[in-house]
Amino acid sequence: MPTTSEFSARLISQTTFIPPEDVPWEPSPAGGDASNLVEFAGRACYETWDRPNPHTAENDAYVRHILDVGHLSLLEHASAGVYLRGVSRSCAHEIMRHRHFSFSQLSQRYVPAEQSEVVVPDAVAADPEIAELLLHATDVARDAYEELLEAIEARTTGESNSVLRAKQARQAARAVLPNATETRFVMTGNMRSWRHFIGMRAAEHADPEIRRVAVRCLGLLRGVSPEIFDDFTITELRDGSLMATSPYVADI
Amino acid sequence: MPTTSEFSARLISQTTFIPPEDVPWEPSPAGGDASNLVEFAGRACYETWDRPNPHTAENDAYVRHILDVGHLSLLEHASAGVYLRGVSRSCAHEIMRHRHFSFSQLSQRYVPAEQSEVVVPDAVAADPEIAELLLHATDVARDAYEELLEAIEARTTGESNSVLRAKQARQAARAVLPNATETRFVMTGNMRSWRHFIGMRAAEHADPEIRRVAVRCLGLLRGVSPEIFDDFTITELRDGSLMATSPYVADI
Amino acid sequence: MPTTSEFSARLISQTTFIPPEDVPWEPSPAGGDASNLVEFAGRACYETWDRPNPHTAENDAYVRHILDVGHLSLLEHASAGVYLRGVSRSCAHEIMRHRHFSFSQLSQRYVPAEQSEVVVPDAVAADPEIAELLLHATDVARDAYEELLEAIEARTTGESNSVLRAKQARQAARAVLPNATETRFVMTGNMRSWRHFIGMRAAEHADPEIRRVAVRCLGLLRGVSPEIFDDFTITELRDGSLMATSPYVADI
Amino acid sequence: MPTTSEFSARLISQTTFIPPEDVPWEPSPAGGDASNLVEFAGRACYETWDRPNPHTAENDAYVRHILDVGHLSLLEHASAGVYLRGVSRSCAHEIMRHRHFSFSQLSQRYVPAEQSEVVVPDAVAADPEIAELLLHATDVARDAYEELLEAIEARTTGESNSVLRAKQARQAARAVLPNATETRFVMTGNMRSWRHFIGMRAAEHADPEIRRVAVRCLGLLRGVSPEIFDDFTITELRDGSLMATSPYVADI
Least crowded by CB within 10 Å, which of A180, C105, C188, D30? Predict the structure, then answer.
C-alpha cells in the first residue's frame, strides 16, 4: 500500500540587498532586505533619499504606502523560492498555471514512481472508511503501474538503449498513476507574484490543497519580509483549515 | 469501462490583418494575413515601404530573412488559438508549463468526471494485452471515483449548499483519477511562442503524446501561415510516429 | 523649423473566431468575434454549451459576468494591434514599459531623423508664445543633429563600410534629439493587457499624452469589441482633454 | 553648461541560497549561491542527490551541462539587481524593451531636471570639436526647459494645487530635453534573462552605449556567479570598446 505523503514547504532562497555606498540613504535597521530593497527602488524613482515625507519615513510605512497607491512593480525587485514536497500532481498542475513563477519539478518520465507516495485530501482523510477507499484505489493503480512498466519494457526489446527503453516504459506506464501521486518542485517568484498567488489561492473559495500551500507559503514569506506580507490576515474556517485575505487583494 | 478518447485539434482563432490605407505599401497577395502583418511590423521599424531590397521583396523571403537575423519579436504580432481534446491530464500539465501561452481548461473541480474518457499512450495501445492492463486499472479508478463522490457527499450533509457540497466532493474524489484522464482546453499564443513550442515539443526526444500535439498544431499553423512555419520538416520515426525539426531551432 | 506631428492610431489587426463545428454551441449573432471567443473559452472550462444560466445566456452578459468574477485569463484569447504615429519618444518610452505587449518601433539608429517631426504637448500648444519657445528649441536640436551627423561621418572615414559609418553617426548624433521627437510603432496585445493599459493610462492622473493614446485606443477597441470595453466611461476634464474609468479597474 | 555624466553600475541585490537540511545533498563549497541553487533545482527534477554522473559532480561542470542541454529554466531561480546611473534616456528606452526584467526608473514627470546631466556618446567624446557641438545643443535644450517650466507654471495659475501645477509644467517642459539626458534606474532579472540580455547587447553590432552597459553588467554578474557567466569571452574592438560573446548564444 502506498505511504501517504506529508506536505512540506521549505524556504530555499531569498534576495539579499546590498545598498550602494554612494547613495545618501541608509536602509532601516528595523526593515528586512526585501522591504529595504523595495524602498530603495521606490526612492530611486523620485530621489527622495532624505525621506522628506514623515508618514513614510519608516520602512514598514513606506511599503504600506506602495500597496496603497498600487505601485506594485517595486515589489518585483525582491524574490523568494520554496521547495515543496507532498503536493499532489493535480494541485501542482493548478499551481503551475501561475505563469509569473519559475518551476523545476520532479519528472515522472525520468524517475520511476515505485517509491512515490500519495497525497490524501483532507476531506478524505477525515473519515477512515473513505480514506480506505482512496488508498485501495491508489494501491491498485500502483500495482498496474508496475505491471505496465514490466510489460512495456519486455515488449520493446528491439530498442537496444536500455536507459531509453526504461524512459519509454515510464512515460507510458505513468498513464495509470493517480492525481493523488505526490510530486515535488522548486517554485521561485518575486514578491508581486507571491502576493498575487496568495491573494487568489489562500482565499476561502480555493481548493483546500492549494489553499494549504498558499497559507504555508504566506507563513514562510512573512518570515522573509513581514513588511510586505503583514496586511494578510489568517483565519480558521469551520472545518479547521486556514485561509488568508488582505484588504489589498482586490480581485480573485 | 471508460471509452478511449480520440485526440482532436481544431484551429479556433487567427489574426486578421487590416493594412492601414495611409501607408505607401500593399500586402503581398500571395502572403497570408499573419505573414503580411509580420512584414508590415518589420517595415515599420525602418520605413522601407518601397521594398528597397530585392532579396526580401517577396513576403515569404521577408519572413525567412527575419528568421535568419533573429528579429523574432516581429512574430509576436500574429496569434492563433486551438481547441484541443483527447489530451491526457499529464500531457496537458506539461503543455501548460509553456508560460507564454494562454490556457482555458476543462475543470475537474466543477465538472463531474463520470463521462470522461481516457487517453491511451501509443506504446500501450500497440499491444492489446498491455492496453487491457491499462483499461482495467483506469476502470477501477473510475469506480473508485464514483464511490468516493457518493461517500463524501453523504458525509458532508452538514453543508446545506448542495452545489458547494458537490464541488467539495469532486475536488476530493478526483484524487484517484489517473493521468490518462482526458482533458480539453483552449490554447492561444503568438507565432513566436508557437514556433518555440513546436521546436521543443515536436523534437524526437519529446514525450510521444506532446510530440503528437506539437506536430498536429504545426499542421494547423502551416494552414494559417505557410510563410512562418515552412522551415519545419516533418519526418516519420521508426515507430511510425511523427516529429518535426527546423534549422532555425537552435536549442531545445 | 520641424513640422508638428499629428497623433494617429489605426487598428491594424484583430482576432477572428472560427467556432468548431463539433461543439454543441453557436456564437451569438449579436456578439463580435472577440467576445464570442471569450465566451467559448469560458464555456470550455465548464462545458456549459447549452447556456444553462439564463442570466449569462447573452454574450454581453456573459462577458460582464467574467469581469464580475475576475476570470480575466479568458480575455487573453482575443488580441488586437494598433499602429501609432505622432507619439513623442518620451511617451513611447512610458508605453513600452507595459511588458505584456509586443512592440515594433521605428529605429532612430537605422532611420535618419532629418524629416522627423515633433509632438507638442497640449499644455504647450495652448499658448502660441510657449509653443514658440518649444519649437525654437527643437529647431536648434534638429540643426545640431545634422551638424553632428556630418561631423561624425567626416571623422570616421577610416570605416570603409559606408552603411555602417552612417549608422554609427546616427546612433551618436541622435543624442541631441529631444523627447518631443515623433516616433511610430506597432503595439499588439490581448484584451486583458489592453484593459489593464487603458485602466492605468486613461485615468485622470496619467500624463496627458499617454492618456490621449489610451482613450483613443479604447475607442478603437470598442469598435472591435463593445462587449469587452463597454464598462469604461469616457468623460471630459476641465481642460477639454478626455479620460476614461471603469468600476472594474481596481487599482492603478 | 550641463555636466557630463559618468556611467556607473552597482550590484545591489543577489539571491542567497538556503539548502534544505532534509535533502541528502550538500552544495559545493567551491560554488556560489546562484550556481548551487541552480544545481539544486536541476537535481530536484531527477532526485540525483548522490551526484551519480562523475562528469557533472562538480558544480561548475553541472552548470555547463545545463547550458549544453539547454535546460535554461533552471537559471531562473537565481536573480540579481543592478543600480545604473549615467545612462542616456535613449539607451534606457532600448534596455526597457527587455520585458523579462523589472525596472524602477527616475521620473522626469516628478523630478525636475535642473541638475540633470548628459551622457556623451563615445563617438562624440572622442573629438573635442564634435563634443562641443553636442554640449552646446544640450545646453540650449536645458535653458529652453527652464524657460518652458516657468512659462507654463505662470500660465496655469488657475490650478490651485501647486504640487500638481509643478508636475504639469515638468511633464510638458521635458519635451525639449534631449535623448542624451542622464537617467538612473534599478534593473532586476533572473540569470536566464541576464544571459539573454548580455548575449544580445554585448555583441559587436549593438549600440555602443548599450554594449557598454551589457559588458559592465557581465562583469558584475561574473562576480556573483562565475559558473553561470564564464562561457562569455570579453574582447576589445578596434575602437577600444569592449564586446562579449559566448558559444552558447545561438541567436541575436
Answer: D30
Residue D13 touches chain A, beta carbons under 8 Å: yes
**DSSP result, C104-127:** EE--TTTS--TT--BPPPHHHHTS
- From its phi and psi, is residue B70 left (phi > 0), alpha (psi between -120 and 50) or beta? left
| φ, ψ (nearest 5 deg) of residue B15 | -85, 130
Contact flag B104-C44 (C-beta cutoff 8 Å):
yes
Task: Specify whether the CB–CB gap between A214 and A7 falls below 8 A.
Answer: no
Which of A180, A206, A205 lies closest to A88, judged by CA? A180
Residue A2: which pLDDT band, with cuts at 50, 70 and 90? low
Write the pLDDT tens digit of every residue in B27-48.
999 999 999 999 999 999 999 9
Retrieve residue D153's grid coordinates: 507654471
CA distance C71 to chain A (A): 8
Residue D105 pLDDT greater than 70, yes or no? yes
Question: In angstroms, rounded to a whole number, what is the distance separating the alpha carbons of residues C204 and D190?
Answer: 35
- For range A122-142, the mean pLDDT: 92
CB of A90 within 8 A of CB of B90? no
Over residues D120-174, the pLDDT tens digits come to: 999 899 899 999 999 999 999 999 999 999 999 888 777 778 888 888 899 999 9
Whole-number Å distance between alpha carbons of B35 and C85: 22
pLDDT band, very low/low/confident/very high, at D252 (cuts 50, 70, 90)? very low
- Rounded to an integer, the average pLDDT of D104-124 is 86
3-state secondary structure D168-209: HHHHHHHHHCECCEEEEEEEEEEHHHHHHHHHHHCCCCCCHH
Instruction: Say if pTM beats, i.e. exceeds, 0.90.
Output: yes
> How far is the CA of C217 from the CAs of C210, C224, C250, D97, in angstroms?
10, 11, 20, 21
Q: Is B98 annotated as a binding residue?
A: yes
Beta-ladder partners of A235: A243
pLDDT at residue C77 tops 50: yes
**pLDDT band, very low/low/confident/very high, at B252 (cuts 50, 70, 90):** very low
DSSP string, D75-135: GGG-EEEEEEEEEEHHHHHHHTT-TTSEEEE--TTTS--TT--BPPPHHHHTSHHHHHHHH
Which phi and psi (to 5°) does residue A182 adopt? -70, 140
What gap in Å lies between CA D15 and CA A12, rounded to an integer?
A: 10
Closest CA to C180 of D119, D159, D148: D148
Chain C contact for D221, CB < 8 A?
no
Q: Is B49 on the interface with C (CB under 8 A)?
A: no
The number of helix segments (H) and strand segments (E) in chain B equals 9, 6
Residue of A nearest to D71 (CA): A104
Q: Give residue C143's identity as a one-letter amino acid code.
A: D
The Cα-based distances of C5 to B48, B72, C2, C12, C119 in angstroms read 20, 30, 9, 20, 5
Distance from CA of C151 to the nearest CA of B (A): 24
Average pLDDT of every residue of chain D: 93
CB C187 within 8 A of CB C82: yes
For residue A195, give the DSSP letter: H
Task: List CB contacts of A179: < 8 A, sequence separation 6 or more.
Answer: A88, A89, A90, B89, B108, B174, B175, B176, B177, B178, B179
Can you say whether the dihedral through the CA atoms of D218, D222, D223, D224 is positive or negative? positive
Active site residues of A: 201
pLDDT in tens, B201-241: 999 999 999 999 999 999 999 999 999 999 999 999 998 99
E strand or H helix that includes residue D37? helix D33-46
